[in-house]
Amino acid sequence: MANLNKVMLIGNLTRDPEVKYLPKGGPVAEFGLAVNRSYTLDNGEKRDETTFVDIVTYNKLAEIVEKYLKKGRSVYVEGRLKLETWDDKQTGQKRSKMRIVGEVMQMLGGRDAAPGGGSSESSYGGGEYEDGGRPLQRPPSRTPARTPAPSDPDLDPSGDEIPF
């Protein structure tokens, strides 16, 4: 049976990323993302809904997150769902939390993007990054290159020759 665990989100950071280090020294960046949705009820009333999501990134991507992302910054995150479970030390009860493990990230807006910034990208931080911290390489488009239509020199004037 086939399985798929893929999440794609665009939202704004709710807090500055918090970076910790694993026992072997690898960085882990955690941050919150607010994802907004607007909709209209049957009676015409407009509503807004915000979903808050916790994101975690590792290794080189965590370093990029720490360096470039700040509260309010717009970002695209692609990753997978992960359910974490643990025993609460105070109550002894089982606890769980669903989070997103970020594997690809693209910063939206320019260098000084204000909260909810636009979609223009800059050389500073508009690139896409994958978990290894490498810029994301998309496969080339499969659209065939257009070849110019054959031309007839008697019908297609060139330069100063205008046929009227």
Features:
164 residues, mainly beta, OB fold (Dihydrolipoamide Acetyltransferase, E2P), five-stranded mixed β-barrel, 1 helix, 6% helix, globular
| Bulk shape | globular
**Stretches where pLDDT falls below 50 for ≥5 residues?**
114-125
Secondary structure: number of strands: 7
The CATH architecture comes to: Beta Barrel
Radius of gyration: 24 Å
What number of structural domains do the residues give? 1
The proportion of residues in beta strands is 35-45%
List the secondary-structure elements in sequence, H or E: EEEEHEEE
CATH homologous superfamily designation? Nucleic acid-binding proteins
What profile does the largest beta sheet have?
5 strands, mixed, barrel
Strand order of the largest sheet: 1-3-4-6-5
CATH topology: OB fold (Dihydrolipoamide Acetyltransferase, E2P)
Secondary structure tally, helices: 1
Q: Tell me the distance between the termini.
A: 69 Å
**What's the CATH class, please?**
Mainly Beta
The averaged pLDDT comes out at: 80
Going by helix content, strand content and strand pairing, the class is mainly beta
Short account of what is shown:
This protein is 6% helix and 42% strand.
Task: Write up this protein.
- This protein is mainly β and 164 residues long.
- The chain has one domain (7-130): Nucleic acid-binding proteins (OB fold (Dihydrolipoamide Acetyltransferase, E2P)), CATH 2.40.50.
- Helices cover 6% and strands 42% of the residues.
- The longest helix has 10 residues, at 59-68.
- It is globular.
Secondary structure layout:
Layout: E1 7-13, E2 18-21, E3 27-40, E4 46-58, H1 59-68, E5 74-87, E6 94-107, E7 128-130
Parallel strand pairs: 4-6
Antiparallel strand pairs: 1-3, 1-5, 2-3, 3-4, 5-6, 6-7
